[in-house]
What does this fold into?
Amino acid sequence: MLMCREATELMSLKQDTTLSLRDQLALRIHLSMCQACRTCARQFNLLHQAGKRHPASLLNSRQTFDD
Amino acid sequence: MPLSATLAAAHFAQLRPRLVAFARLQLRDANAAEDAVQETLLTAFEKSATFEGRSEFETWVFGILKYKILDQLRQQRRQGTWQPLDQDLDDDTLDRLFQQDGHWQSAARPSHWGEPEQVLENQRFWQVFDACLIALPESIARVFTLRELMGLSTTEICKEIGITETNCWVILHRARLRLRECLDHGWLN
It folds into this structure.
């Protein structure tokens, strides 16, 4: 039985590589039962998006120069 | 119309602080960051006439900066000024966040951050994000920024800094847990 600690490991791994079918299934079952881990999974996704947007956020921080 | 030299110079002056801030996040060394930005601007200046729009130009300059940052990183490793440190990884993150049976500690349960699009539009989120990133132990922060801010795969990161991919995944797991913990505390409260 997958516990929260290991579930977060799989959620993190999922950001970097493809999970095995067995891990995908175990994670899906855990998430269906665990609100805290669902929230954590959303946060990991957001961190990933934030990483991608980060240079852009620096770009957006000072719009004093217009074309 | 291509960027004139004057306009390009104005663009550079405006871009520079943001490039330096970005480089410092990755390199954690003011001089190395200055060097990377300096080389980026020199390269960019030679090619600036070929660009028409500003946003296209800025994206391109950040792209050059990423390569220069990787050069600096290799140099830091060659000179022995930076090595991924084992003691940075030997931390108590997991024990702090989880009970012995693997459940979340009640104080560490993640809080809802709201809609992703709104969160990413929020200036305060970015301030806390940067502060949390800087507060991470150096080795953890570097692996995270290489992966998430520079977009390298874990395979590429292994090659760049000489760690195993498994080690890389362990580090990223801790980085994400700590960042989300820090954002939970710093941003929502």
